[in-house]
Amino acid sequence: MKKLRFGAVAFVTALLIAGCGEKKKEEQTQSDQSSAPAASAPASTDNQQAAATPSSSGNGEQKLNVYNWSDYIGEHTVEDFEKASGIKVQYDVYDSNEALEAKLMAGNTGYDIVVPTGPFLGRQINAGIYQKIDKTKLKNYGNLDPLILQAEAAFDPGNNYAVPYFWGTVGIGINVDKVKQRLGDNAPVDSLDLLLKPEYADKLKDCGVTMLDSPSDIFPLIFNYLGKDPHTTSPDDFAAAQKVMQGIRPDIKYFHSSSYINDLANGEVCAVLGWSGDVFIAASRAADAKNGNNIEYHIPKEGSLLWVDNLAIPKDAQHVDNALKFIDNLLDPKVAAAGVNFVTYPSSVKLELMPDVSPDIAKNPGIYPTDDVKKKLFPDKIVDAETERLRTRTWTTIKTGQ
Hints:
The protein is an alpha/beta fold.
């Protein structure tokens, strides 16, 4: 991040504005179907009662309820924090911004920290979901990359309600050998043609093609691929994107925003449209397992979405002081570097402050894109209610194949 050089600061800022989501503590308790955490119980407990009757203050309790993307935190970050602080963390996970938003809008979540992506964060701030961050309690706040702070400010003016966490891109993950077996050495692995053209997708169907179940990530890529404004609101453009997707819908094994990580690592799928860090996690798991699956990540040459995820505290949080301690811990360079090394997403902490980041990550253009690639990246934007309905309706039609 310290090497960004593309002219005006405003242009740099625009490139860094984000929407996604990427993702993650390994093997954390899955609770996508629960409505809220019980602060004094394990994640498997029915949490509805705890959410319905939140404590009026609770800041003195040594507890913390975190709701984060799956596979989106350092391997030992939570346990190390618990040991150092004496605060017991209940850590639940989700795999889409839409799932998080539905829970937040319902109210009384019982969570103290959540991790929304840029445009979702902005909409939720406008809805009064979050409380302001007390930056005086974040001694590590100065470690944040100013460019990422500027990007977050596009959705949170003044950086009042959130703290940037990880950022990344949406792109193509492949099992190199399986794709080459079916498409040859000249397979367009760096192009969305690989997934969006039937002549390629049909040949990959037998080894497994998947996509994120996240219309806010997928549609901008398709619009850009079609030569349209990534943020178009035109019904005709949505119809054009739907036509492209329906052409390859029979070739898609499933839409999901986390299952593809292990499936790609294990060789159960061979081509995915997913978040950058997830694909690198899959590659790492395959290498650790020595299972012969060679995984690569490519940012589409046509351009892609660049997103930022953010740490925010809901207005009804019960343990605000503990939430601030946890956020501050994540901004510690050693903790941040451990997170980068584990989840393989770039941190919002300035890279030069993290000498412990693996050189393989720091110098990987799929994780820290080159300047030329950055020029083809574009931000996400908040969409109006009418466009959101159109997007959701079109996505549902695509998924159901009707």
